[in-house]
């Protein structure tokens, strides 16, 4: 999945939805999900780990969950909601 659907929810909230369909990732055991930047930062930031270069993707958010054996019998949907406030 290169990109997910981005839906604006309530004011100040972003929602990211990604779906693994029946034909996706079969035989894998799913146990984590993550949101990554697209990797276009021109220079590393102070919060980047050592060795991060310009244009490297960065992990924005990560969630670990119980193992889910992925088969063609199921679809899996990840739904992230991130709130922003002033």
Main β-sheet, in a few words? 3 strands, antiparallel
Element string (H = helix, E = strand): EEEEE
Please list the strands of the largest sheet in the order they lie side by side.
1-2-5
Radius of gyration: 15 Å
Quick check: average pLDDT? 84
Q: Indicate how many domains the architecture comprises.
A: 1
Percent range for helical residues?
under 10%
Count of individual beta strands: 5
> How many DSSP helices?
0
Stretches with pLDDT under 50, minimum 5 residues? none
Structural class: mainly beta
The portion of residues forming beta strands comes to over 45%
Which word captures the global form?
extended
Distance between the termini: 32 Å
Explain what this protein looks like in three dimensions:
The chain has one domain (5-38, 56-83). It contains no helices and 5 strands. The termini are far apart. Helices cover 0% and strands 45% of the residues. 0% of the residues are buried. The model has no long low-confidence stretch (mean pLDDT 84). It is an all-beta fold and 86 residues long. A hairpin with a 4-residue loop joins strand 1 and strand 2. The strands form 2 sheets. Strands 1-2-5 form a 3-stranded antiparallel sheet, with no helix packed on it. A two-stranded antiparallel sheet has the order 3-4.
């Amino acid at each position: 999945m290169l990109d997910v659907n981005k839906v604006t929810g309530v004011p100040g909230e972003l929602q990211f939805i990604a779906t693994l369909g029946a034909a996706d990732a079969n035989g894998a055991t799913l146990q984590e999900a993550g949101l990554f930047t697209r990797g276009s930062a021109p220079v590393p930031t102070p919060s980047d780990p050592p060795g991060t270069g310009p244009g490297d993707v960065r992990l924005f958010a990560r969630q670990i969950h119980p193992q889910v054996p992925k088969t063609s019998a199921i679809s899996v949907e990840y739904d992230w909601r991130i709130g922003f406030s002033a």
